[in-house]
Design brief:
heterodimer; A: mainly alpha; MetI-like fold; 1% strand; globular; B: alpha/beta; Rossmann fold; six-stranded mixed β-sheet; 10 strands
Chain lengths: 293, 249
């Protein structure tokens, strides 16, 4: 090949490389733009509705005025309830799957089941919760039913994250502990779990974010259209942020009038979820810095 | 004689890794297991404290007799066996804890809780492993900050803190520099007064330097088991001679 031909072939190769890099860069940019655009839009529209009163007062005047305090409280109750159901159950399942279960067809089926559960539409969880907790167990529409339903919804997230975290603990740690004549459970409890904790926490916090934002699972199981009363037990109905948005935007009689409140509520919900995710990110980066193996 | 194996066969699934191994390990001696990669020497070592139990799909035939009892008898708890037969691994594997807590981890879980006793044990173990002078002022610091050689000696100290009778070492110096290696070899010489040591090594000079008895393995079979001096000067089997003189390997 002579120099000219070589040059032109190199140019062509560089062109292809640049083209490809350009395309991937553009895709990444698009995602950032979509998220950024969404956030800016919400902040711009919701900013005016935000005030201290908006956060600490209940809705008034047929929900056209006042605040969203009951919905904030309700969402917090539901989310905490969901995580206190899903974390123990999910963590224990993950420990079983990654530490105790003999790897084979049985475990593979359970794992496929968990992954499928993650793909089930949330409205199906809502109907499942309605059937099982509200009707069959006669909890009625309340925090308990909603939290259990949300708990099942985030279970796959927590199992997945916990299993990953457990697997990331080096096998040499387990070996070292077992070789000292320490039992398997003690090894898991004293060596594996502490080292997997950051990953488990991160996964759980992301689960919390997910639970806080879901509407469909709580629609039939926990959320009230309107109640000024704060819950006094887990068998009370509550308002919740996502459902409140849904109601104001679709079912009210003053849809146009309540636009600012809708945007304000969306802003609060998004802020809450992003805040929770941010905590997860901070924990993870803090632990990564401290990690020494 | 502290450990004997009788007609041991070992399988990873369908693969037979050890064939008909019968070996006696003498008390307070260093026994070296040598042979090319994949010959089964590490497998045999891990059989002696039931570490192979941890691998799914493995199977043992024959008997491993420790102090008169077959450790593969269904009534035997592998956890007890591992308490009596400690192990040091190829790569130093301290826990991400302080030096102090690395040593006390095992004893703590087996019921030793008195702070004074534990402090004494830490000092004793680290002295046994000839690490005390280097770390006595930094016991609270993470074991991950030590050098590779120091980490390995810490792992030996950690194993000794359980007061085992036997110490199994799986290529304990293969990840270390020559100076650290020399220190560990010196340590092995010192430790054999109190412990029975069985060491797997790729390094034939090391086997010749530290061991009293040497077993040569090839393709899962024990080819020759003899006094180290005999193995390295006038082995009975031609195959052994070929290996130690480097004619194959």
């Amino acid at each position: 090949m002579n120099t000219a031909a070589l040059n032109s072939s190199m140019k062509w190769r560089y062109f292809k490389q640049n083209l490809f890099f350009g395309v991937v860069r553009l895709s990444a940019l698009l995602i950032a733009l979509a998220l950024g655009g969404l956030l800016v839009y919400i902040v711009v529209h919701g900013y005016e509705a935000l005030s201290w009163d908006f956060l600490i007062l209940p809705p008034t005047d047929a929900m056209t005025k006042g605040g969203i305090m009951p919905a904030i409280i309700g969402t917090i109750c539901l989310t905490l309830g969901a995580i206190s159901v899903a974390l123990p159950l999910g963590l224990m399942s993950a420990i079983y799957l990654s530490e105790y279960a003999k790897q084979g067809p049985g475990v593979r089926i359970i794992r496929i089941g968990v992954n499928c559960l993650a793909g089930v539409p949330s409205i199906v969880f809502g109907l499942f919760g309605l059937g099982l907790f509200v009707v069959f167990l006669q909890f009625g529409s309340c925090i308990a039913s909603g939290a259990l339903t949300l708990g099942f919804l985030i279970l796959p997230t927590i199992i997945g994250a916990s299993e990953e975290a457990l697997k990331a603990v080096p096998a040499t740690f387990r070996e070292a502990s077992l070789a000292l004549g320490v039992s398997k459970w003690q090894t898991i409890y004293r060596i594996v779990l502490p080292n997997a904790l950051p990953g488990i926490l991160t996964g759980s916090i992301l689960g919390i974010g997910r639970a806080a934002g879901e509407t469909a699972p709580i629609m039939f199981t926990a959320a009230a259209f309107y109640t000024v009363q704060l819950p006094s037990s887990i068998f009370d109905e509550v308002m919740a942020l996502p459902f409140h948005i849904y109601v104001l935007a679709t079912a009210g009689t003053h849809i146009e009038e309540t636009r600012p409140i809708q945007y304000g509520t969306v802003l609060v919900l998004v802020g809450l979820v992003l805040g929770v995710d941010l905590i997860a990110i901070l924990i993870r980066s803090y632990i990564r810095k401290k990690k020494r193996w | 004689m502290i450990i004997k194996t009788r007609n041991v066969n070992f399988y990873y699934g369908g693969f037979k890794a050890l064939t008909d191994i019968s070996m006696d390990f003498e008390k307070s001696q260093v026994t070296a297991l040598i042979g090319p990669s994949g010959c089964g020497k590490s497998t045999l070592l891990r059989l002696l404290n039931r570490m192979n139990d941890l691998i799914d799909g493995t199977r043992v035939e024959g008997e491993v007799i420790f102090e008169g009892k077959n450790i593969y008898h269904p009534g035997i708890d592998p956890v007890d066996i591992r308490r009596r037969i400690g192990m040091v691994f190829q790569k130093p594997n301290p826990f991400p804890k302080s030096i102090f807590n690395n040593i006390t981890y095992g004893p703590n879980l087996t019921g030793m809780n008195n702070r004074g006793d534990l402090e004494g044990l830490v000092e004793w173990s680290l002295k046994q492993a000839v690490l005390w002078d280097e770390v006595k002022d930094i016991l609270g610091q993470s074991a991950m900050m030590l050098s590779g050689g120091q980490q390995q000696r810490l792992c030996i100290a950690r194993a000794l803190a359980m007061k085992p009778d036997v110490l199994l070492m799986d290529e304990p110096t293969s990840a270390l520099d020559p100076i650290s290696t020399a220190k560990i070899e010196e340590l092995i010489q010192d430790l054999k007064k109190r412990y029975t040591i069985i060491i797997v090594t790729h390094n034939m000079q090391q086997a010749a330097r530290v061991s009293d008895m040497t077993g040569f393995f090839y393709l899962g079979k024990l080819i020759e088991y003899n006094e180290t001096e005999t193995i390295f000067t006038k082995p009975n089997v031609k195959h052994t001679e070929d290996y130690i003189t480097g004619r194959f390997g």
